[in-house]
Each structure stands twice: as structure tokens, then as C-alpha cells.
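Run: sequence + guanosine-5'-monophosphate -> complex structure.
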Amino acid sequence: CGVFGIFGKSEAASLCTLGLHALQHRGQEAAGIVSYDGKQFYVERHAGLIGDTFTKTSVLERLPGSRAIGHTRYATTGGGGMRNVQPFYAEYEGGGFAIAHNGNLTNALTVQKALQKRGAIFSSTSDTETFLHLIAMSEGKDFLDRFIDALKQVEGAYSLVGLSEKKLIGARDPLGIRPLVLGDLDGSYILASETCALDIIGARYVRDIKAGEVVVITGKGIESHFPFAPVPTRFCIFEYVYFARPDSNLEGRNVYDVRKRIGEELALESPCDADIVVPVPDSGVPAAIGFAQASGIPFELGIIRNHYVGRTFIQPSQSIRHMGVKLKHNPNRKMIEGKRVVLVDDSIVRGTTSQKIVQLVRDAGAKEVHMRIASPPTMSPCFYGVDTPEKAKLLASRMSIEDMADFIKVDSLGFLTIDGLYRAVREPQRNGECPQFCDACFTGEYPTRLMDQEVDSKIR
Ligand code: 5GP
Ligand code: SF4
Ligand code: MG
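>> structure
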């Protein structure tokens, strides 16, 4: 998901709309904005893309005020439906407040059950609703105290923006799994999942919010709190591989730079005799450029993407996902016919995309089709806000690399090693005792306890 917040700027909801538009790649299912005009909160939540819903003047007119937070949704827990669309708005004894969340809590069900025992009633199936109840039931003296009290009771990944009658709050979980950055627009503070959302409104990047940090923005400025004992951080390495937009800078690294270096490492680790390097658009493009530059094999757009189809992976049902891949890619026969092609993509999850793309390229007359993947095999599901399917559906958890090559029908298949990935983010190697990143989907080493999973069967 993508989150955005702005404090003290007229037409806050319009700026929020632009920010969310830049964060659309983090979730296309639905979006919402909550604004505050000093007297009252206003809530708009709609299914679909920002450009189709929030750009209408009528919608923006219903969101007055100089403070706003927003969210682009990509369903990881709780499934679809409007009741799970964020920001969530609620009123507790101290007034109204709204919250938008990127990430996933790993103990939400456990906490929810305990809250229900105390009489709480939940109106969504989203883990994020847990925060509302924890804040409302807290005995903290003000909103900030209650907010921090709530954070102390949850586990997992969260980058949050919250809006109360007096404050805009931003917070990252103690491991800093999901990103959150701070920006400044003519003296007004902005919070956003990625820097590309600052660029679109001409805001200046100030800094990344730190892991475990809670920032409070009011008319008087900004203050920082660190309510947790510091621990080594574990930023999601998959943000660099796939999730973030390539023009964003996260944790001091430009995402496009990292992806190109990933391609270079891949070419060194897993070289290939081929005539052309072809990216699987769009997610494979930067790594394919790096691969081509390091190998000296020409880069060609051998597959053309139709841009009017969303990310196939994000469509909730399997049948639509199947259709989506065909709608999305077409081979450029002129480029491919008679050639030895090396395809570069960011990852193989279920293997559906790769299987179809390889077939397309063969049907277009390729002499050989090789595949190089810009990450290690995806072996384990993510419980921190990226929608990987359960373990049994991950191709790499069921098959050896050789069997995967047979399954997607390529002449050869190569993946980046985990150390290659760490080199691409400019770490000499993965620190086995305490990895510098979360890389659980590749290694199965989860940086937190998985409380809800202990009672569930998803990873068994
Ligand atoms: P597959 O067909 O193998 O399941 O999907 C792989 C494709 O989906 C890759 O090209 C990649 O761009 C995209 N993808 C990989 N991982 C994820 C993910 O966790 N979430 C989403 N939304 N897309 C992914
Ligand atoms: Fe990122 Fe993978 Fe960790 Fe999920 S499991 S937070 S996708 S590195
Ligand atoms: Mg892709």
C-alpha cells in the first residue's frame, strides 16, 4: 500500500491526490482520503484508481481543509470490499482521528480476539482496524500517548500516518520494514511512502523517518519520539527488487540504481550466450539494462506492454490473473525472430507470468529462450504487506531450479544469489547472524515472531 499525509497547506486533499497518484503502483484496488478543516473530518473512500475517482472536483470539494492523509490499497489481509478501504476514521472520547497503514501486523488476529473479549466490535476484516481499538481503549493521557501505547501492543510491519484534531503523526515499526519519508513544501510537512510522491508536488525531501520513530507534526513544527529500545533495522529488500518505483530514493539508495546493479550482478553470476537481452516489462527493465551493459549483449524491447492494464499480480482472482497476462504483453516479432533471447524479470512467484511470456517469445520465433531472474528464488510468503501467495503456491518452494526451467520451458534459468542481491544494495555480503534487511521471502528467516501464523497453517 501507499500512504501520504500533509499538514498545514491549503487544498491539502488535492495535494494528497497527487501524492497518491504517484504511489498508485503500491496499490490499485481502492483509495481513500480523510481531510480536516479545523472543525470537522471529511472521509472519501473509493474503489479503483486515483485518476478515475479522486480527480473529480465534486470529490475534492467534499474534502476541505489544510490537513489530509490518504492511502492506496492493495489487499494483503482482509480481502476486498469497501469496508476495508483506508484511511479508517473513528471517534474516541478525545475526538475524531484517522489512520492509514502500509504493512501487515503479524499478531492482529491474536490482539483482535483479546479486544473482542473486552467488548470491542470490529467492522472490517483488516489488521489495521486493530489500531483504532487499541487507541480508543488506551488509558494514555492524549492522542500521542494512546497512539504509542497502541504501537507497543502490535507486532509486524507498519508505516503509518495518523491525523487527529491537532496533529499529523507518522510512525515506522522498530525494524523499519516498510518505507516512510518526510518532505517539506514551503514550510508544510509531508509524509509519504516514497520520494516519488514528494517529487510530484514539488516538495523537498527532508529525510527518511527512522525505524521505530514516531514523528508528530503540528502548527508549531515537528517533534520526534523513540518509544522502542533500538534494534538493528530490517528494511524490506524486495522494495528495491520490485515494489518501489524506480525513481524513488529509499534509505539513501536510488531504486533504479540498485535495480541496474542487480542486473550487473546477475550477468556476472549467471552469464548467458544470447543475441539480445529482453526485459519483461515493466518490472524487469532496469535489471535488464544492467544485465545488457555488464554482458555487452544488446538490450532490445522485444516485448511491448499495454499500459492500460494494471499489474496482473494484484488482481485478486486466479482466473483474472491468467487473462491479465495476455492482455498485457505482446512480443515484437521483428526483434525476436531467429534470435537467442535472454529474458530478464524481477522475480518468479507462481510462475504463471514466466510461463506465458516464454510461450509468447517462442511463438514469435525465438531460436533459444533463456531466463534470468533479478532476485533469489521466492521460497516463502511475506507477512509484512507484500501479497505473495501461500508457500505451496510459490513455484520455488515446490521445485528445484532445473524443474522450474522445465516448467516454464526455457533453455536455461538463472537466479541472482542472496549475496549478489546484497552486493547490489552495496553491502559486502549478507550478515548471517543479523541480516541487514528483511529478506524472508528468499531465505525464510523472518525478522519477527509470527504470532498469528502459530495458530494458522499458512507456512506449514
Ligand atoms: P508470477 O506469474 O510468477 O506469479 O508473477 C511474477 C511477476 O509478478 C513478476 O514479473 C513481478 O513483476 C510480479 N511480482 C512479483 N512479486 C510480486 C509481489 O509480491 N506482488 C506483486 N504485486 N507482484 C509481484
Ligand atoms: Fe519484503 Fe520479502 Fe520481507 Fe516481505 S518477506 S518484507 S517482501 S523482504
Ligand atoms: Mg513483472
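>> summary
The mean pLDDT is 94. The pocket of guanosine-5'-monophosphate (ligand 1) is lined by residues 242, 280, 283, 311, 313-314, 345-354, 386-388 (CB under 6 Å).
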